[in-house]
Specification:
The chain has a six-stranded antiparallel β-sheet, with no helix packed on it. A four-stranded antiparallel β-sheet has the order 10-11-12-13, with no helix packed on it. With 171 residues, it is an all-beta fold. It is 0% helix and 58% strand. The chain contains no helices and 17 strands.
Length: 171
């Protein structure tokens, strides 16, 4: 694999790049910051914007986003600088959703919990919103998740079926 390296050009100028196992610079230190590689890509930063490069140093996602999550299971989120909303992308850098999500809360059992307009929903790995919107949506554990609407709680399964009606108080 490749390791991140900081090269100090002079007392005021430095850059982040990558070296191989023999300490050879393989990606020039031209970035303001560089994160470790994950699933063949690294998040890099220039001029307070983020993008992604591959292990050859090719820019595979333009350096124009204000936040990016690391690649995980072939998926990642990027936050648009203009709208400050997140969208889901795949490992071919295709955008799977519009930039509409305010927060990415969790990922478990092939579902993301995302927030849009103060409501939570589940997003599958293809970018499809599933199971409606909730005030609270917990991550799935063993195929089940606690959800809440209007102060009442219940449980859904990972097919969206309500297995415990959303009618109980939290005590």
């Amino acid at each position: 694999g490749l390791a991140t390296v900081i090269v100090d050009f002079d007392s005021n100028t430095f850059g982040y790049g990558f070296i191989d196992r023999n300490n050879n610079i393989v990606i020039e230190p031209k970035f303001q910051y560089a994160y470790a590689f994950s699933e063949g890509t690294a998040i890099v930063k220039n001029y307070d914007r983020l993008g992604m490069i591959d292990t050859n140093g090719n820019e595979v996602l333009p350096i124009k986003y204000i936040d990016i999550t690391p690649m995980r299971n072939g998926r990642f989120f990027a936050v648009d600088a203009l709208s400050e909303k997140a969208a889901l992308f795949d490992n071919h850098f295709r955008q799977l959703t519009p930039f509409v999500y305010d927060k990415i809360l969790s990922f478990n059992e092939d579902f993301y919990v995302v927030e849009r307009d103060s409501m939570k929903t589940y997003l599958d790995t293809k970018g499809k919103e599933r199971f409606g919107f909730y005030d609270i949506a917990a991550p799935f554990t063993d195929g089940y998740a606690m959800v809440s609407r209007n102060g009442k709680y219940g449980i859904i399964n990972n097919r969206g079926k309500v297995v415990l009606p959303i009618q109980y108080d939290n005590s």
